């Protein structure tokens, strides 16, 4: 194992939340918003998950790395107030692309984004750097990851899950019985194991900065974490896993996004309102939900400001959305402000904000949902 700095104090952790990607796999849902700003569970946003986990973990130095559609994220962040990050010292710092300095310009992947911020990380001088994606649904006390990292004397600790889906869409990890990572393959065609990286990485700062300096001359750039950065650590440093027990899902595709919401509805997913670990967000300033006298609602989440007069089964109805009498919504997600008109049928679908739906919008099933854009046009 690498020689690990022995801290005489609680290590200072800098959290960097990666919120810059375009989210292209979500298609029209991210044409006009950043993926971290995607609604979740009717009342939340995807970025609320890492920010809430950080709050409950007592980590208050948080940087948000932005690039694509940043206003859609900033409108929600509100200077970090919902997560107690609006502080005089520490707290929330937004990192947009910049010019006129080393590291300027747009990043080509999340590892390249870290390289562009490396001078600022060096100046801030944390002991550890916690790098988080903002499109996954899970609950985790990051202090447990820090404990794993320090006990192992590691340079990198990656959070992993034993995944029951298609591992080829993720970074695939091989581990020894002691938790040491022995192999890492980024989105391999033929995964060797079902253990995947949950895109939660804790680096010792010195090792991270040295690696970024070493890799900075790559002709093809650093790209995403799995292209060069994590393979370099696995080859050259002590890397261990911290296995995440419990629910975890990547919400980066329409199928995963719908499946996660159906899990919430069915009680199989994360408890967003758990008394000991609630998801925090900016509360909407809207009236309570309204349910008409002929409405039929079965096993669904109805957000504040929504109005239901028709039939809703196993679905999530976003804030300000409405389902008219004679309309049917099943196994679907309606984002904020959607209007489903009388006689319309929505099934196995995700309907984008403010769309007006008439007629049928029916997907082939939970793995191939129909996606309806803001103009009411359906793709699948």
TrEMBL record:
Residue segments, region Disordered: 361-380
GO terms (BP aspect): glycogen biosynthetic process
Cross-referenced SUPFAM superfamilies: Nucleotide-diphospho-sugar transferases (SSF53448), Trimeric LpxA-like enzymes (SSF51161)
One Pfam family here: NTP_transferase
Bilayer-spanning residue ranges: 12-30
Keyword set includes Transferase: yes
Glucose-1-phosphate adenylyltransferase/Bifunctional protein GlmU-like C-terminal hexapeptide domain boundaries: 285-366
MF (Gene Ontology): glucose-1-phosphate adenylyltransferase activity
Location of the Nucleotidyl transferase domain: 15-264
UniProt keyword list: Glycogen biosynthesis, Membrane, Nucleotidyltransferase, Transferase, Transmembrane, Transmembrane helix
UniProt cross-references to InterPro entries, sorted A to Z: ADP-Glc_PPase, GlmU/GlgC-like_hexapep, NTP_transferase_dom, Nucleotide-diphossugar_trans, Trimer_LpxA-like_sf
Keyword Membrane: yes
The family this protein is said to belong to: Belongs to the bacterial/plant glucose-1-phosphate adenylyltransferase family.
Name of protein: Glucose-1-phosphate adenylyltransferase
Organism per entry: Arthrobacter cheniae
